[in-house]
């Protein structure tokens, strides 16, 4: 029998709770749902009012992994949806606005990916993001060196940056910016990526070409484009272990000596939230939003 639970007055059918989704540790779907319920208070603000792209892995990372952008079939009527403009025509997408919607979405088994804009102003960014992706044998250690350079460069123009692990191999840098067209944010991010490559030529590459990336950190500036999304803070990733895209302190970035030091699993997050709160909470403070030069 499918378990039925009630979340904030909404009845949810939760399926296959014993199914192993992260095989390296035996982490089950039930544990995935428990994780999201535990971190909802810090995760939901990062999802709210941002149309969600779901990267689904219903049979674990070794099964079929696929993006769902449109509202999935069977979505309950009480889940908030909104029309989102796209170049090929408007589409309807999900907004995860509350705990019940979060648990419903988590039951689909998904990573959460969101754009750098909110539904009220599509294509007008309130964030700038850099996805630092290491090419082997480089690791997140090299990403940290690049992140520190970018942090200083952004600070010089009054933009305060924050960091989180990607939940995979790299590091994400985020900052709040005054509302700016996504195309302009993307162009500025590219400028900084090119500048970083010139300043750190043995460490940084700004182009995606894989043959250029070995041993270097690809500074992916393109996720600032209006149509692009980035892994949402606190989302689980579709990997063998239940790794999380987790906010980190700048002290952790500065002191990172191995990839293991910035690898966080689902069980690590609640204690970190107790100790630090949401390290990305300043992103929601309007007075901290910087202006692009």
Could you characterize what this model shows?
With 293 residues, the protein is of the alpha+beta class. The chain has six helices and 16 strands. The protein has helices at 29-47, 99-106, 140-155, 182-199, 250-255, 266-276; strands at 4-7, 10-13, 20-22, 27-28, 53-56, 66-68, 81-84, 91-94, 110-114, 124-134, 161-165, 171-181, 204-205, 217-220, 230-231, 247-248. The strands form five sheets. Strands 13-14-10-12-11-16 form a six-stranded mixed β-sheet. The chain has a four-stranded antiparallel β-sheet with strand order 6-5-9-15, with no helix packed on it. A two-stranded antiparallel sheet has the order 1-2. Helix 1 crosses helix 2.
Q: Which keywords apply here?
A:
293 residues; alpha+beta; six-stranded mixed sheet; four-stranded antiparallel sheet; 6 helices
Describe the secondary structure blueprint for this structure.
Elements: E1 4-7, E2 10-13, E3 20-22, E4 27-28, H1 29-47, E5 53-56, E6 66-68, E7 81-84, E8 91-94, H2 99-106, E9 110-114, E10 124-134, H3 140-155, E11 161-165, E12 171-181, H4 182-199, E13 204-205, E14 217-220, E15 230-231, E16 247-248, H5 250-255, H6 266-276
User: In sequence order, what are the helices and strands, one letter per element?
Assistant: EEEEHEEEEHEEHEEHEEEEHH
Silhouette:
globular
Helix content: 25-40%
Average pLDDT for all residues: 96
Query: Structural class, from helix and strand content?
Result: alpha+beta
Low-confidence stretches: none
Number of strand elements: 16
Major pleated sheet: 6 strands, mixed
Which strand order spans the largest sheet, edge to edge or round the barrel? 13-14-10-12-11-16
């Amino acid at each position: 029998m499918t378990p039925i639970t009630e979340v904030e007055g909404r009845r949810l059918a939760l399926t296959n709770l014993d199914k192993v989704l992260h095989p390296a540790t035996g982490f089950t779907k039930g544990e995935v749902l428990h994780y999201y319920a535990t971190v909802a208070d810090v995760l939901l603000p990062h999802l709210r009012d941002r149309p969600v792209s779901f990267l689904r892995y219903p049979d674990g990372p070794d099964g079929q992994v696929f993006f769902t952008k449109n509202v999935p079939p069977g979505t309950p009527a009480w889940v908030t949806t909104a029309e989102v403009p796209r170049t090929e025509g408007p589409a309807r997408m999900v907004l995860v606005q509350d705990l019940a919607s979060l648990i419903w979405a988590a039951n689909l088994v998904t990573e959460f990916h969101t754009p750098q804009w909110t539904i009220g102003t599509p294509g007008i960014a309130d964030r700038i993001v850099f996805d630092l992706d290491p090419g082997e044998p480089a690791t997140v250690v090299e990403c940290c060196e690049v992140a520190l350079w970018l942090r200083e460069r952004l600070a010089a123009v009054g933009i305060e940056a924050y960091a989180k692990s990607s939940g995979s191999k790299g590091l994400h840098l985020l900052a709040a910016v005054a509302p700016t067209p996504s195309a302009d944010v993307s162009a500025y991010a590219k400028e900084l990526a090119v500048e970083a490559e010139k300043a750190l030529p043995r460490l940084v590459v700004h182009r995606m070409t894989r043959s250029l990336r070995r041993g270097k950190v690809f500074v992916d500036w393109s996720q600032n484009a209006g149509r692009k999304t980035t892994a949402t803070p606190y989302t689980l990733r579709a990997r063998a272990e239940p790794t999380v895209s987790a906010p980190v302190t700048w002290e952790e970035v500065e002191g990172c000596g191995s990839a293991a030091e910035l690898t966080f699993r689902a069980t690590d997050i609640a204690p970190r939230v107790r100790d630090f709160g949401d390290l990305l909470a300043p992103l929601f403070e309007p007075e901290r939003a910087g202006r692009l030069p």
